Amino acid sequence: MEKPVIIGVGMVPVGEHWRVSLRDMAVEALLNAMDDAGIDNVDSLYVGNMASGSFIEQENLGALIADWAGLGNIPAVKVEAACGSGGAAVQEGAKAVMAGLEDVVAVVGVEKMTDAWPSDGTRYLAYAADAEYELFHGASFVALNALIMRLYMKTYGYTEEDLAYFAVNAHANGAKNPYAMFKRPITVDTVLKSPYVADPLKLFDAAPMCDGAAAVIITSKEKAKELGVPKDKMVELAGFWRAIDTINLANREDFLTLKAAKVAAEKAYKMAGVTAKDIDFFEVHDAFTVMAALSLEALGAAERGKGALLAKEGQIAIDGDYPIQTMGGLKSRGHPVGATGVYQTVEAVLQLRGEAPEGIQVPDAEVGLTQNIGGTGSNITVNILRRV
Amino acid sequence: MGRPMQVARHWRHFREKYALIGGKCENGHVFFPKRPVCPVCGSRNVEEYQFSGKGKVISWTIVRNPPSGFEYYKPYPLALVELEEGPVVLAQLTDVDPEEIHEGMEVEMVTRKIREFGEDGIILYAYKFRPPIK
Ligand SMILES: [Zn+2]
User: Were both Cys, which of A83, A206, A233, A323 would link to A281 (CB 3.0–4.6 Å)?
Assistant: First the structure.
């Protein structure tokens, strides 16, 4: 089956946008992507968003954003897969194009988190866990990841310092990305001296609460040619899949394997006809440092239990064998939860077009992988993008 | 969240949460919580199963920035407890000095208050785990 292509990308800088609303951010990112693609209408809209109903008392985002962007009476829906909503929305858009039902599809990921009181925000994020058996007992999302982090450290003999290298790498890259929330490098010490949020997980092991929106335009190669999109502006969505795992962490057969990522990656690699070795850069879901390690293992970039070593040895830097978080990742660019998967897609497209900011362009990048996690690994999307 | 109509929502779970009642399928697989389909073999022939409440801590954390509704209790320890019958449950630890929590620590289930919803709201109780009283 013919693979779809991304012909336009747009985003707004991630941050605490107190003067800007969800709809304004989403429309801005969307119009940027349409301008980038050189089009003024689309056939449908998919919105990646996790918890607008909780954060700003607004659901029905399909209608809201399509209406405010002036897209007319098109189909438009919200796609929800917790923090993995953005990556999932990209896939739904791609499927519609591949099915031949919709020619030109817009996907926008958006989340407005800073309108909520922080402890309420913590509660809303925990809605991605099992409400009856996790949040009920006072589990925050950070706490659940802290349980995983302790097990990871204990099982493989890692220290808090070993995991801190993921945050350091993310900030080193994010510092060069004008769209990143935190544009300053940090050291291992910064991470280790930050306060515990849920021991052994510290403030700098975690991504921030923030606001953001990113968008992509997806179409078929045939249509792209018809629209006059130059070839070097097209990026193929070469392979993609997603899978679930138990929603309740306690029910997981193996706490240290992101089984959903493994399953999704295997299918995506097969569809794209590549292996982990062919991937030039990985945008993994480092909402927590330990998740970056587990992701590298699940995606086949590292053996089981060796993910953290890649960070410590510098292999995840732009000039390493496995560059990750090339534009800052969730940790430094920021993690507006339902928008994250679309930011990753936009960043991968920029890398593959050779348009990444100075200092963080992966030289001659041909193939990139984005991996977007919902829940504590319960709903994971893997997308593989390739230069046309 | 503190609305009176939430009573039914929590009442539905009283048996499992007060007494740690889970499920057991026709092939002898036990799991918590009880669910309509056995997560091991897929059997739909599932009945209630009473766990002993004995277990050990396999991972733990101290929640310092809790979700709203739990601020009053912070900081509090939260753990993954492996029950002696095999399944793992997430629960708070109680009657323990955070410094003393360690991997492999033996614990037993007790029913304790989880949270309350203001003066006229309901009070939620459920399982927590503590070091066994010898
Ligand atoms: Zn069974």
Answer: A323
DSSP A62-100: HHHHHHHTT--S--EEEE-BTBTHHHHHHHHHHHHHHTT
- Residue B104 and residue A151: Cα distance in Å, rounded? 12
Q: Do A251 and B31 touch (CB under 8 A)?
A: yes
DSSP code, position B67 = P
Q: What is the largest CA-CA distance in chain A?
A: 57
pLDDT of residue B3: 54
Q: In 3D, which of A266, A307, A269, A260 has the Cα closest to residue A288?
A: A307
CA B34 to centroid of ligand 1, rounded, Å: 12
Distance from CA of B86 to the nearest CA of A (A): 11
Tens digits of residue pLDDT in A237-290: 999 999 999 999 999 999 999 999 999 999 999 999 999 999 999 999 999 999
Distances (CA, A) of B18 to A22, A259, B21, B23: 42, 32, 8, 15
- Angle ∠(B2,A114,A66) on CA atoms, nearest 5: 100
Q: Token match 């990841």: residue? A: A145
Backbone φ, ψ for residue A178 (5° rounding): -60, -20
- DSSP class of residue A328 equals -
Instruction: Give the residue from B70, B95, B92 showing the smallest Cα distance to B80.
Output: B92
Residue range A4-14, pLDDT digits in tens: 999 999 999 99
In this prediction the ipTM stands at 0.96
Amino acid code (one letter) for B97: D
Strand order in the sheet with B46-50: B30-31, B21-25, B46-50
A17, A83, A171, A285: which is the annotated catalytic residue?
Answer: A83
Omega before B33 within 30 of 0, i.e. cis: yes
pTM of this prediction?
A: 0.97
Q: Which residues surround ligand 1, an ion (CB under 5 A)?
A: B 25, 27, 29, 38, 40-41, 43
CB B65 within 8 A of CB B102: no
